[in-house]
Design brief:
The protein is of the alpha+beta class. The chain has 3 helices and 4 strands; from the N terminus they run H-E-E-H-E-E-H. The radius of gyration is 13 Å and the shape is globular. 27% of the residues are buried.
Length: 111
């Protein structure tokens, strides 16, 4: 169930303009997306709206400024995904924040 939800979430989130998959490799319950803005900033704005976003990877990998790790478990509902997609889309559409340049774009290529 959680893998199916994760794939549903990834498909929906990728429909948001500027959101891209970071890695082309297959995934189970977790996936990394590259946002057009700072993931830490987006995370904070999601929290202000009462939504738990993904994990900003810059907390562990400083060069991954715009990357966010998303995970779905057996407790993640379709409504949770829909709320996340709606709020993330609204944040990215309304923000004046400029995208942060990513020096590691080559890592997006499959290995």
């Amino acid at each position: 169930v959680s893998a199916r939800t994760a794939h549903f979430a990834a498909r929906c989130l990728l429909e948001i303009p500027g959101v891209e998959r970071r890695f082309a490799a297959p995934f189970f319950q977790e996936f990394v997306l590259e946002l057009p803005q700072s993931a830490e900033s987006v995370y904070d704005r999601l929290l202000q709206r009462g939504v738990r976003g993904g994990l900003p990877l810059s907390r562990y990998f400083p060069e991954r400024t715009n990357d966010m790790l998303f995970a779905c478990t057996e407790t993640t509902t379709v409504a949770d995904v829909e709320t996340l997609v709606h709020e993330l889309g609204a944040i990215l559409a309304s923000s004046d924040e400029q995208p942060v340049a990513d020096a590691n774009r080559l890592e997006k290529l499959p290995r």
